[in-house]
Design a protein that fits this description.
266 residues; alpha/beta; Aminopeptidase; 7 strands; 30% helix
């Protein structure tokens, strides 16, 4: 295990929770090339390890990276093709904030050889570990469920119009998981009245969901993109709001429990 790149907790259930954007580490050599604003890693998926801490008690495996998405985005394809055609996208190695402003000082953005090096150094170890853990879970349980946990500011005009629903479930339009699992999760979302929600809206699942979600091969993947406003302050220093977080966690728990209760042969 490459503990300098990611941390992996191996559980006893078919569920793997991946949190690919929680990292905040930026290598010292890179810091001087970034604009000062970037050092606060404002586009991180803040506090998700804390919100999903209960997943271990449910028997889930959990994998998290150490480094910021500004170093490399683990949820983008290695070929650096856009995730959402016709819309603004950040790259495999981002050069812009989610606001559209430049991340790098003038003339300091990485060239192709540096992108390839970061792919080798940071991206591949995470994906190798993710794939190996899914293979282990499938071998032990007959199937595996990959839960992609994400969060984002509720209003980001450069990336999407208006305000996002609070909870955004993505299944690549039903391709990345079995219909029964999708339906079970949608039922949980529909049963709660605290949050607005949508399935396969603006966020349908990123590269990880689309790449590893192969229900015909026994691996089912879903993504949940949550608005920061459901559990934290959306302005610096991006602190958790304990009351909002406490209100949200039962919904998260119900979703993960539904994923665990679902069976391919049901």
């Amino acid at each position: 295990m490459n503990e300098s790149i990611y941390a992996l907790h191996r559980g006893q259930s078919p569920l793997l929770v991946s949190l690919p954007h929680v990292g905040t580490l930026i290598p010292e050599a890179l810091k001087a090339r970034l604009v000062e604003r970037a050092l606060a890693t404002e586009d991180a998926d803040w506090h998700l390890e804390r919100l999903y801490a209960f997943a271990r008690d449910l028997g889930a495996s959990v994998i998290v990276p150490r480094h910021s998405r500004y170093v490399i985005d683990l949820n983008r394809p290695p070929e650096n093709t856009p995730m959402y055609a016709g819309a603004n996208n950040t790259e495999l190695v981002p050069t812009r904030f989610f606001s559209g402003d430049p991340l790098y000082r003038d003339g300091q953005a990485p060239a192709d050889d540096e992108v390839r090096d970061r792919l080798r150094r940071y991206w591949r170890p995470y994906h190798d570990a993710l794939a190996d853990e899914l293979a282990r879970l499938k071998a032990e349980h007959g199937h595996a469920v990959l839960w992609e946990g994400h969060s984002i500011r509720s209003v980001l005009p450069w990336l999407f119009e208006g305000r996002l629903p609070d909870l955004n479930l993505g299944t690549a339009n039903g391709v990345s998981c079995a219909p029964g699992l999708r339906a079970a999760l949608m039922q949980v979302l529909a049963a709660q009245q605290s949050y607005t929600q949508v399935t396969d809206g603006r966020f349908k699942g990123g590269y990880i969901t689309r790449r590893y979600g192969q229900p015909q091969a026994g691996v089912h993947a879903v993504q949940l993109e949550m608005c920061w406003s459901t559990y934290m302050d959306e302005a610096p220093p991006y602190e958790v709001d304990p009351q909002r977080a406490e209100r949200l966690q039962p919904v998260l728990r119900a979703l993960l429990q539904a994923a665990l209760a679902w069976r391919p042969d049901a």
